[in-house]
Automatic annotation (TrEMBL):
InterPro entries noted in UniProt: 2Fe-2S-bd, 2Fe-2S-bd_dom_sf, 2Fe-2S_ferredoxin-like_sf, 2Fe-2S_ferredoxin-type, 2Fe2S_fd_BS, Ald_Oxase/Xan_DH_a/b, Ald_Oxase/Xan_DH_a/b_sf, Ald_Oxase/xanthine_DH-like
Annotated ranges, domain 2Fe-2S ferredoxin-type: 8-96
The protein, known as: indole-3-acetaldehyde oxidase
GO BP annotation list: abscisic acid biosynthetic process; auxin biosynthetic process
Binding-site list for FAD: S356, I357, G358, G359, N360, D372, L412, R440
Entry note: cofactor: Binds 1 Mo-molybdopterin (Mo-MPT) cofactor per subunit. Binds 2 [2Fe-2S] clusters.
Pfam families: Ald_Xan_dh_C (PF01315), CO_deh_flav_C (PF03450), FAD_binding_5 (PF00941), Fer2 (PF00111), Fer2_2 (PF01799), MoCoBD_1 (PF02738), MoCoBD_2 (PF20256)
KW Signal (keyword) present: no
Record: residues binding [2Fe-2S] cluster 1: C48, C53, C56, C78
Cofactor: [2Fe-2S] cluster; FAD; Mo-molybdopterin
Organism whose genome encodes this protein: Theobroma cacao (Cacao)
The organism's taxonomic lineage, starting at the top: Eukaryota, Viridiplantae, Streptophyta, Embryophyta, Tracheophyta
Domain FAD-binding PCMH-type span(s) in chain numbering: 234-422
Amino acid sequence: MGEAVKQRSLVFAVNGHRYELLNVDDPSITLLEFLRSQTPFKSVKLGCGEGGCGACIVLLSKYDPVLDQVEDSAVSSCLTLLCSVDGCSITTAEGVGNSKDGFHPIQQRFAGFHASQCGFCTPGMCVSLFSALVNADKTNRPEPRPGFSKLTVSEAEKAIAGNLCRCTGYRPIADACKSFAADVDMEDLGLNSFWKKGESDEAKLSRLPSYNHSNASSKFPEFLKKHIKAGASLASQGYHWYSPASLEQLQSLLQENEANDGTSMKIIVGNTGMGYYKEQERYDKYIDLKYILELSIIRKDQTGIEIGAAVTISKAIEAMKEENEGDFHLESKTVFQKIAAHMEKIASGFVRNSGSIGGNLMMAQRKHFPSDIATILLPVGTIMNIVTGRKLEKLTLEEFLGRPPLDSKTILLSIKIPCWGSRRDISSETDTKLLFETYRAAPRPLGNALPYLNAAFLAEVSFCRNSTGVRLNNCQLAFGGYGTRRPIRARKVEEFLTGKLISVGVLYEATKVLGTIVIPEDGTSHPTYRTSLAVGYLFEFLSPLIDTLAEISDGFLNGILLKDSKTEPSCDEFGKNQLPTLLSSGEQVIQLSEEYHPVGKPITKAGAAIQASGEAVYVDDIPSPRNCLHGAFVYSTEPLARVKGIKFKPSSSTVGVTALMTVKDIPGKNVGSKSIFGEEPLYADEIAQCVGDRIAFVVADTQKHADLAANIAVVDYDKENLEPPILSVEEAVDRCSFFELPPSLYPLQFGDFSKGMDAADHQILSAQIKLGSQYYFYMETQTALAVPDEDNCIVVYSSNQFPEFTQDTIAQCLGLPGHNVRVVTRRIGGGFGGKAVKAVSVATACALAAYKLQRPVRIYMNRKTDMIMAGGRHPMKITYSVGFKTNGKITALKLDILMDAGIYSDVSLVIPGMMLGALKKYDWGALSFDVKVCKTNLPSRSAMRAPGDLQGSFIAEAIIEDVASTLSIEVDSVRNVNLHTYNSLDFFYKSSAGEPMEYTLPAIWDKLATSSSFYQRTEMLKEFNRCNKWRKRGISRVPIVHEVSVRATPGKVSILRDGSIVVEVGGIELGQGLWTKVKQMTAYALSLVQCGGTGELSKKVRVIQADTLSLIQGGMTAASTTSESSCEAVRLCCNVLVERLTSLKEKLLEQMKTIEWETLIFQAYLNSVNLSASSYYVPDSSSTHYLNYGVAVSEVEVNLLTGGTTTLRTDILYDCGQSLNPAVDLGQIEGAYVQGMGFFMLEEYPTNTNGLVIANGTWTYKIPTVDTIPKQFNVEILNSGHHKNRVLSSKASGEPPLLLAVSVHCATRAAIKEARRQLLSWSGLDRDVSNSTFQLQVPATMPVVKELCGLDCIQRFLQWTMGRK
């Protein structure tokens, strides 16, 4: 063993800087932890800790001395262990480019294409693209045009497929990426700051930040090339890290470990399994397999491909995709390429670059990981080479998976995928073909999501030359990932099919047998859906072989043309050929105004370039002060229980723990957050009121130690003599548990409901709708840093939308006067309402710990805890009765609304008014309602982007859809007949309606119908649906009327001696472009002084962080209007300054002909002119409330076999008034819309029976990704002219467009309706039988859609086909 344990230091580079560590105290430390705590490079962000978001991506480069080449790959630094990067070079976003050395074209283009909003995800995006560029430009592809890379458009889009963004809606990010692609059509690139629409490609290219692909490669430091990598060992404090260089060394280590019984050991390659299994414990020994040659081989010969167990999934894909394999038969190549194509949908590129084939299969074998790889390798006869001690075994994959979990002595050496070829007998009357296909049903088409089921089928079939039949000679059918311990072969189905001529009857019998085999284990979600997927995929595989079903086939079977295909070419049944290949394209139409220059210009967002380089400082990027401690919450896992005590598990380590803060440590009032409606305690006092209720705060020397200690804290609960918890709105009603809604907040009723119902021709009575919650999924979780200051003061840095109330809360909690507490907020990595009231308690907990311990304390909440405590959007149960005429005109609507507020009031009492505001978008005739705000033992719900408005808009559409279904008329005509006239608008919205000319909705409604070709496409869809049995399309046009209120906001503008300008506002920069608009407004308002040099004033303006002791009464940044009110506050300041400067300027002009800005300011200083002005903008009654209007048309396609919904196209027309910055507003519209798509189509936020959130990470909670947004995404911002009561005639854009996403849900409903009509016809019922009334729940996930389309639709179709014979 002497050679294997030779100890030496760890050497690597970060952005060219050499790092040498003589020992590593904790081998479980990740590269992310090291970079963030031990280097100045903070661009790597912790978004999830699971490899699921891409915020922490770095480029990892390794040198191969044999080939004298560098291998570059993007990896998740949150999963990569520090000790595994020995000899590697790491490049972060700062290393790609920065403000000091110059920004890289990637960063410049991200800024110029408006592809960064909050900016937290942007560095990871940039590194992902950089990695793709570096690797594409190493290929031997043809030289690209000057200014472009060798990347293709498709590769450019997919480069960021695994990166999550909650702000932008992805379209501008995709455009920034595509701008580097060799095959890009410049016309397809969207709005940017480089060129104007209509310019030539040459002009466009000349304005793009230049890119030279020959300089693209990452720079590998020379000093690392001399570094010997293999066989090293690191040791520290009883922990060991081994990097054996041979199989013998590895076996020796394993034997030694067995002898030392009780020593814990972890074998790693990429450590990606940690992302799934969340291993927290430290091991005594770590063994890195990357340097063992036998485990890293890839061998190809005529018998197949052998892949070493330590080979990464990405390298395995590469090996199987290579074209130049003359040894392989064409059919074998097809098998390998299809396996590779499926593997490209596993996890994301940066996980595949680290994760190994062997690691994936060993997790499947030992821990029953739902592995796609195991399933797709099962039917192709994969052989597993394993070694135990000196014994080498060859097992089939099925035998390997079927064994009891292998012990630590057993090593998987390699896998062998054999070559496959069909037999051909020239003398026989048959042609034999080999068919292979893999399948995967998952919420995201490009991966980064576990499947509901995966499958792979291999079959040999014979086409009879003299007859029409196809015989299935043999087949292997594998299914996995559906809630079973391991993938299975469906042997009964295989045996049944073998040797048979494939017919409708045979296929029907096969599906019946399959339904008895693929049965998920108890406790698996959507079990019948998963079984139906198996049936659907078998049908998709075999149905093209049946002549009778030729009309339902596209005529192609895995690339082999079937004889006598009668299919129309436009009818491509299984969706293989017709969907757009690009993930997203679109057109953006904006109208520019010069009236208030530079206001109205689509200038680049302030700080976008430093966000892209990772130099923008967020709270957790602030360097830790000396002696800084870190905190983590201990929260209740019981919904209602007495807390008797807290202790740590006796067998667990509490390394680094300094203190445990509880309610007993509070010197002042037990208050953790507050709103105008009430307070929430910081810590549970005797009784924990809900799951997620804060019980204590662990303080330790590192964030990792604090999190570990919080995880092992054991709370002693007692439920004796306590009432059962209230866990639903129904239980709240039974127990009369409500928050009282003050009369001033109770929305008005409209008209006489009884008269309206009497006037109706038809009625729907007591129909129900249920809506669930939604999590914010800001990329930056809750975070704060509290630093004790002199004279009993404290400074708190908080990621916070509500610094003013945070200051008040901390002061009360600590028993201090407010002036002793300073809360500072610079920027937020995404908020969406979740950083308002919910952030206050996080900052207060840090402040309390820092105050008591007299040491700085910070927290960066882990994603799981954040998701459990967040609360999110308000769930609701709605019961409605509606009366309507035969033409669809609604005469009366009554609603009974039960809203789940959770345990504390938070801002829940304003939600009913907001909900009814959005619901009033239609003329209901008479509107009556009863709203109950239910108090339950669940985490308190809070404001989330468009709180209440989103639910209200959906309720309105659900009712309209129900009316149309009941009447069997087109839903668009029902919407049309119920749109407001100005008189009805004025009746429902009173003073908010404004002047008649401001009511632009009818004009927008008609204009979008024309520009989107709505009516023509509606007719085309009918033809498509007639022609296609297994894909149905739907289209929907939806309006919004969204009421907003403008709140009072402070501002301060100061002009410095050199003419530069510093601005403070109450509003917080969340990514919504508030600072950018404020800069533009400052430049415009000060330019009215009319002297030389004021044309470029925006470059002289800096907006600085919010500071509660510098600018008071900042209020909450929320409700879409803070940007405009901050702009107006600044304009008031500037008006004062202009007035002061104008009188000086006039005096100076008597002495000189012209005067420049700098001269004027210098003279103002000499003349003691006050160059600082503060204001507090308070809107008058005519400006407080106003309405926003927009319309969206969305078209979707539903796959009836899987329930998968693809949004083919969305067109939005939105009235922004006179936009303060069209680029910023466009980003808000697109980003809000995609976030709304998440609510309506993807995001499930389920809990267990106690109310504890179980979707608590990126594995289980799915926000939209670049592959789930509309394929074509067209947005037009309408400049609707002057609104005299608005800020420079502008209108809000942050929240209203979110409501338009309901159009996707409604279009999906339309497609499902077509599927159900078809299903009825197969059951022998008339297509027009009125069974069309159904509820499509939110979110309309794949299982939900499939169930409505018919879980048994395949069987019913086959029965119908047999009956027709």
